[in-house]
């Protein structure tokens, strides 16, 4: 009996789960195949040790810099892969396309959270519910790319297709929402600008998704996807 | 330790801090990753404690540079963990380490000569 609120095994298990899902999964497949188990074992042992010296709070304080350090290492591993890959084998255009997709996706998501979801939360009963669904969809759609990239499983191939199709529906929905929004009290110029930008973003997403679906498949897509995410 | 006889090329001598301490942890015998990390913590009085990614990233680079190898020598069965891999320094790794230590010694001498440590 340690007298602590959360047991050591629960803390270590939770931290290890987070480490595996959020950090280890992002390493290149070749690196994971070689060192994943040893890294996980080492993380568990260290975590257990840290818990012993200062409990849950100490583990929390240790996790942040550890994760930050790991993300730098993930970048280095992809950089190594890029350096070792002959230029002729690099899919630079594909990588750039994916980079733009993520940029647009992130921008679009933040844009909608700020523009549609947040005002809705503060004025739930009186606001326009119309903005909530597309905002949520956009978040989920773009998160699905990350899920597929992280899991690297071919079972998740269908997600890209779903994302592309969903974006078409979302695109149509956004036209309706932003046409309607022109009548709201924020002012014509603001809504014209926000609507135009959102449509542009979504148009770009659809184009990119389509392009990626046609030109890249499976591991190539996921690999390049991760390269872009980590700046490789 | 392996019997490689190459010299340490000047342009391959750059060792990161982690790589340096990993090499420094190994001359007294093969160790697994966690033991290397603990040794580094002890050697640097807690100042350098690499995370798993830093440690295994450096191990990967040292293996590639043939400065360390996976060791067949394992501890006695009672102390052995079969899942773990043990790493040993090669002769080439030892030479690289010695070269780096020499470079650092030279830097320290230079720093002393310039009274960096406040000496007269």
Short description:
The complex is a heterodimer of chains A (232) and B (120). Chain A is mainly alpha-helical and 232 residues long. Helices cover 81% and strands 0% of the residues of chain A.
Task: Give a verbal description of the structure.
Chain A contains 7 helices and no strands. By secondary structure, chain A is mainly α. In chain A, helix 1 packs parallel to helix 2, helix 3 (92-122) packs antiparallel against helix 6 (188-215) and helix 4 packs antiparallel against helix 5. By secondary structure, chain B is mainly α. Chain B contains 4 helices and 3 strands. In chain B, helix 1 packs across helix 2 (33-43). At the A-B interface, helix 2 of A face helix 2 and helix 3 of B.
String of helices and strands of chain B: HEHHEEH
Largest interface: A-B, 21 and 16 residues
Query: Looking at the chains present, what oligomeric state does this protein adopt?
Result: heterodimer
Number of strands of chain A: 0
Low-pLDDT windows of residues of chain B: none
Q: Sheet bearing the most strands of chain A, described?
A: none
The value of Rg of chain A in angstroms is 21 Å
Mean pLDDT of chain B: 85
Uncertain runs of chain A: 124-131, 181-185, 213-232
How are the SSEs placed, and which strands pair?
The complex is a heterodimer of chains A (232) and B (120).
Chain A (H helix, E strand, L loop, with lengths): L7 H15 L6 H56 L7 H31 L9 H20 L5 H25 L6 H28 L2 H12 L3
Helix pairs in contact in A: 1-2, 3-4, 3-6, 3-7, 4-5, 5-6
Chain B lengths: L16 H9 L5 E2 H11 L8 H13 L3 E3 L15 E4 L1 H23 L7
Helix pairs in contact in B: 1-2
């Amino acid at each position: 009996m340690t007298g602590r609120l959360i047991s050591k095994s629960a803390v270590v298990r939770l931290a290890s789960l987070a480490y595996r899902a959020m950090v280890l999964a992002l390493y290149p497949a070749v690196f994971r195949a070689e060192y994943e188990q040893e890294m996980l074992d080492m993380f568990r042992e260290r975590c257990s040790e840290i818990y012993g010296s200062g409990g849950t709070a100490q583990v929390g304080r240790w996790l942040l810099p550890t994760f930050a350090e790991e993300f730098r290492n993930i970048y280095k591993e992809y950089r190594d892969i890029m350096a070792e890959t002959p230029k002729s084998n690099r899919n630079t255009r594909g990588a750039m396309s994916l980079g733009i997709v993520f940029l647009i996706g992130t921008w679009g998501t933040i844009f909608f959270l700020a523009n549609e979801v947040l005002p809705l939360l503060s004025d739930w009963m009186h606001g326009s519910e119309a903005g909530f669904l597309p905002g949520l969809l956009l978040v989920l759609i773009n998160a699905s790319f990350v899920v597929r990239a992280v899991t690297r499983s071919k079972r998740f191939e269908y997600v890209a297709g779903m994302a592309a199709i969903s974006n078409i529906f979302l695109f149509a929905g956004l036209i309706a929402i932003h046409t309607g929004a022109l009548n709201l009290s924020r002012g014509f110029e603001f809504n014209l600008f926000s609507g135009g930008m959102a449509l542009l973003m979504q148009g770009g997403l659809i184009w990119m998704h389509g392009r990626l679906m046609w030109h890249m498949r499976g591991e190539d897509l996921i690999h390049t996807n991760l390269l872009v995410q980590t700046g490789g | 330790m392996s019997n490689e006889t190459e010299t340490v090329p000047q342009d391959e001598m750059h060792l990161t801090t982690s790589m340096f301490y990993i090499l420094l942890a190994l001359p007294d015998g093969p160790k697994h990753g966690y033991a290397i990390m603990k040794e580094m913590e002890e050697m640097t009085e807690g100042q350098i404690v690499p995370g798993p990614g830093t440690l295994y990233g450096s191990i990967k680079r040292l293996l590639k540079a043939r400065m360390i190898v996976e060791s067949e020598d394992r501890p006695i069965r009672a102390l052995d963990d079969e899942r773990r891999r043990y790493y040993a320094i090669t002769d080439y790794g030892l030479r690289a380490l010695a070269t780096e230590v020499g470079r650092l010694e030279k830097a320290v001498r230079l720093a002393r000569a310039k009274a960096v440590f406040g000496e007269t």
